[in-house]
Amino acid sequence: xxxxxxxxxxxxxxxxxxxxxxxxxxxxxxxxxxxxxxxxxxxxxxxxxxxxxxxxxxxxxxxxxxxxxxxxxxxxxxxxxxxxxxxxxxxxxxxxxxxxxxxxxxxxxxxxxxxxxxxxxxxxxxxxxxxxxxxxxxxxxxxxxxxxxxxxxxxxxxxxxxxxx
Length: 165
What we know:
The chain is mainly α. It contains seven helices and two strands, in the order ββααααααα. It has helices spanning about 30-40, 45-75, 85-110, 115-125, 130-135, 145-150, 155-160, and strands at about 5-10, 15-20. A two-stranded antiparallel sheet has the order 1-2. Helix 2 (about 45-75) crosses helix 3 and helix 3 (about 85-110) packs antiparallel against helix 4 (about 115-125). The termini are far apart. About 15% of the residues are buried. Mean pLDDT is about 85; it is low at about 155-160.
């Protein structure tokens, strides 16, 4: 009779789950199963705990990025964006990431001075208040930022309708 490779283990969370122990030597499977049950939670509870931890981590990272973005906005006199709360949050982070990355890359490699960066990129960027523009261009390369912000047009001006009201 072959020794079972899959054992039913009652975990410390109280759930019972069939667990594959085929990689554990046959003589150690029962002891290993006992140790798992005594010290671990089942896969479902582990995943649920991981999801909560991941959400907390992402929320903390998001809050930290928003704080950095607000500081960057203050330092560069960027106006607040206009839109829904969710759009503003996402676009604020995106605008910060785009502009700070461009600042680092363009001034770090000597392509332009910080004063030139403010004149050529930040000043035109101050006129872009729609979150959708920042979100739509989030994947832009730092080298393309100047062209993007200087050629940005308010989409509402381009829309022609039969009803002028």
